[in-house]
């Protein structure tokens, strides 16, 4: 059924708490990685990607904090998220948003594969016509 206003507010507060908590953990891990980098150690590809994602999240946090700090500006957050979907740090994404991003990436890859298959087929036809 329909949830009450109190339940929705509590769920949103939990969502933001979890997002900030995950961002805090990512920041601590990234700090350790930066320390290792500064002391000449080499990061793995996975660690490098995590470090880049965390740095990007920290830069995205600045405009997001404006919505949290300024009173009643959080009501405009959905509008800005519609205009700028990549504005939120990755730790604040919901499962549905993650699935939607994966679906879009998969569709793009399928379109690229289709294009490449058609190109190869056309090249094969031309080679066959040239030799025949």
From TrEMBL:
Compartmental location: Mitochondrion inner membrane
Tagged with keyword Ribonucleoprotein: no
A GO molecular-function descriptor: ribosome binding
Letm1 RBD domain location: 43-128
Single Gene Ontology BP annotation: intracellular monoatomic cation homeostasis
The keyword Transmembrane helix belongs to this UniProt entry's keyword annotation: yes
Bilayer topology annotation: Single-pass membrane protein
UniProt protein name: LETM1 protein
Organism name: Furnarius figulus
Lineage: Eukaryota, Metazoa, Chordata, Craniata, Vertebrata
């Amino acid at each position: 059924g329909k949830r009450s206003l109190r339940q929705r507010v509590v769920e949103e507060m939990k969502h933001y708490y979890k997002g900030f908590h995950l961002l805090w953990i990512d920041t601590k891990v990234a700090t350790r990685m930066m320390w290792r980098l500064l002391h000449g150690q080499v990061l793995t590809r996975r660690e490098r990607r995590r470090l880049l994602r965390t740095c990007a999240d920290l830069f995205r946090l600045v405009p997001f904090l404006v919505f949290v700090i300024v009173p009643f500006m959080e009501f405009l957050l959905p509008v800005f998220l519609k205009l700028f979907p990549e504005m939120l740090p990755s730790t604040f994404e919901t499962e549905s948003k993650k699935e939607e991003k994966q679906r879009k990436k998969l569709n793009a890859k399928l379109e690229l594969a289709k294009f490449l298959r058609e190109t190869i087929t056309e090249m094969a036809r031309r080679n066959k016509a040239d030799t025949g």
